[in-house]
């Protein structure tokens, strides 16, 4: 399904010579983005708490002749975030971009509404998704500035803007990502820093395709302006553009990459 949509032979080279850290890159959107960026010529560092999956991905990339490495880190732990950046900088001798894709998805099952959510749901969601991303940006920014600039791409969500009857903690955290994006672009844009967010709609990973009923997927598609569901390659393509010099005049934006679902009734 995935290769048939956009193809897997990207070899355009628009990121040749760039060093990019993909945080939350072991599976799903993160893994497909690591593949795309690597195929475009970038040297890739994959940071994730699922080190087994991250290591398997890196083995796959390096078997194709690419240059990639995997490191464990925990986005809920500031020391772990800082150690990840130090390791990546030592490995690659500089950094040109960071894809901040990590989020706590496990807590989504508990994220009901503001009457049912207890404080722990809010605290965990905001700690990982907002505070963790802010700390990651803080750790990366000095090195990008020292290099004369770079690109930061953050994973937001359509939930940050559409309004839903559930998942308020997740939605608020992703609205926070949008605000972080605008802050960084406003503060350091003149020093060569670009910071943009991508807000996916429903993206059908292999895991979701295997576990969601076909009738449910068909129902969602009927309400969408698009002829198909999104796949990780759709998001990876947008990230690759924003990481490249082709995206040099895009800054502070939140792109809704969702087949137009944001505008459907």
Give an overview in words.
By secondary structure, the chain is α/β, with parallel strands linked by helices. It has one domain: Rossmann fold. It has ten helices and seven strands. The protein has helices spanning 2-6, 28-39, 51-63, 78-92, 119-146, 159-162, 168-188, 206-211, 214-222, 232-243; strands at residues 19-23, 43-48, 68-72, 97-100, 150-155, 193-200, 254-257. A seven-stranded parallel β-sheet has the order 3-2-1-4-5-6-7, with helices on both faces. Helix 2 crosses helix 10 (232-243) and helix 4 packs parallel to helix 5 (119-146). The protein is globular.
Which terms would index this structure?
265 residues; 7-stranded parallel beta sheet; globular; 47% helix; alpha/beta; 10 helices; 14% strand; disordered N terminus; Rossmann fold; 7 strands
**Relative strand content:** 5-15%
Order of helices and strands: HEHEHEHEHEHHEHHHE
Give the low-confidence spans: 1-8
Number of helices: 10
- Radius of gyration, CA atoms, in whole angstroms: 18 Å
- Widest sheet: strand order? 3-2-1-4-5-6-7
Largest sheet: 7 strands, parallel
- How far from one another are the termini? 27 Å
Oligomer: single chain
Structural class: alpha/beta
Cα shape: globular
Portion of residues within helices: 40-55%
Q: Could you give me the name of the CATH homologous superfamily? A: NAD(P)-binding Rossmann-like Domain
Task: Please tell me the total number of domains.
Answer: 1
Average pLDDT, all residues: 91
Tell me how many strands there are.
Answer: 7
CATH architecture verdict: 3-Layer(aba) Sandwich
CATH topology: Rossmann fold
